[in-house]
Every structure is written in structure tokens, then in C-alpha cells.
Design goal:
This protein has two domains: 91 residues; 41 residues. Helices cover 80% and strands 0% of the residues. Helix 2 runs antiparallel to helix 4. The longest helix has 53 residues. The N and C termini lie far apart (151 Å).
Length: 167
């Protein structure tokens, strides 16, 4: 290295250097973030000169958006498959078991003994209910006699010639 030539300083200012660093940052972030890609593409579409100068960034943003869209479609397909699998692994067997349970209950034989029979026998032995039963049976017997008399009167009326009513 010779000391004859002074170090040539770049004519770019600090602002230009920061601007360049920002564009480099956009390249990095546009690949991984679809929202940044969308915003950068909107800015580049608005200014044709800038789009021409940063064509690689524009293409990188388009590729990032296509990748993001493909990833979303893949995730939808995976989600649909998981829902389908869950339905057929959990919901369908549960419904089938319910139907089998209902069928099994219907196939059971009828109860041989009425569960209320022992309680009725116990109550029949008590004096209070025995008295009520005898009163009920007496009322039943008197209503049977009345029903027989009514049936006999109706039968007698049926034997009369038409146009005559019994008194």
C-alpha cells in the first residue's frame, strides 16, 4: 500500500447509504413476510422508474406472494383432511355405538315381573287401602248393575216398531 494516493472517499452521502441498507432489508423481509411483499409491490407498481431500478425486489415479492398463497392452500387441504379424519375416527363411531345401543335395548326381552307388583301387594295388606278397595268394588258393582239396566232398556227400544218410542 502506498501513501502516495490518498484514500478516495465515496461520493455517496449517509442518506444514500441508509437508503441502500433499507432496500437490502426489504429484500430480506419480502422473502419471509407476505404483507411486506404486498406493500413493496404496491410502492413499486406506483413508480415505474423505481420498479425498473429494483426489478429483482419486485420479482422476489411476486415469488413470496405465490409461495404464501401455495402455503395457505396446502394448509387448507391439511385442515380439511384433519377434519375429515376426526369426523370418521370420532363422530361416526360414536353415532354407530348409539345406534347399536338403541338396537340392543330394543332386543332385550320384556320384563317378566312388573316392578310395581310388590308395592301393590304391600299396600293391599294395609287396612286403610283395603277399606278403600272394598268401597271401590261396591261402587263398581252398582255401576255394573246400572250399565246392565241401561243396556237392557236400549235393547228393548230396539225391539219396538219404527216411529214408536218407549216411555
Amino acid at each position: 500500500m502506498s501513501f502516495d494516493h490518498p484514500k478516495v472517499r465515496s461520493k455517496r452521502s449517509g442518506i444514500d447509504h441508509e437508503e441502500e441498507r433499507a432496500w437490502v432489508g426489504f429484500y430480506r423481509r419480502a422473502r419471509s413476510d407476505a404483507s411486506v411483499s404486498t406493500e413493496v409491490m404496491a410502492q413499486l407498481d406506483a413508480d415505474p422508474e423505481m420498479k425498473r431500478r429494483h426489478l429483482a425486489l419486485y420479482l422476489c415479492c411476486k415469488q413470496s406472494l405465490r409461495t404464501h398463497k401455495a402455503r395457505q392452500q396446502r394448509n387448507k387441504r391439511i385442515g380439511r383432511f384433519v377434519r375429515w379424519l376426526g369426523h370418521y375416527l370420532y363422530v361416526v363411531p360414536i353415532h354407530a355405538l348409539q345406534r347399536i345401543g338403541q338396537l340392543a335395548v330394543e332386543c332385550l326381552p320384556e320384563a317378566k315381573r312388573e316392578p310395581a307388583v310388590p308395592t301393590v301387594r304391600k299396600l293391599a295388606r294395609e287396612t286403610e287401602f283395603a277399606a278403600a278397595k272394598s268401597v271401590f268394588q261396591q261402587g263398581e258393582a252398582s255401576s255394573a248393575v246400572a250399565a246392565t239396566a241401561t243396556a237392557g232398556a236400549i235393547q228393548a227400544g230396539a225391539d219396538l216398531p219404527p216411529g214408536r218410542k218407549s216411555a
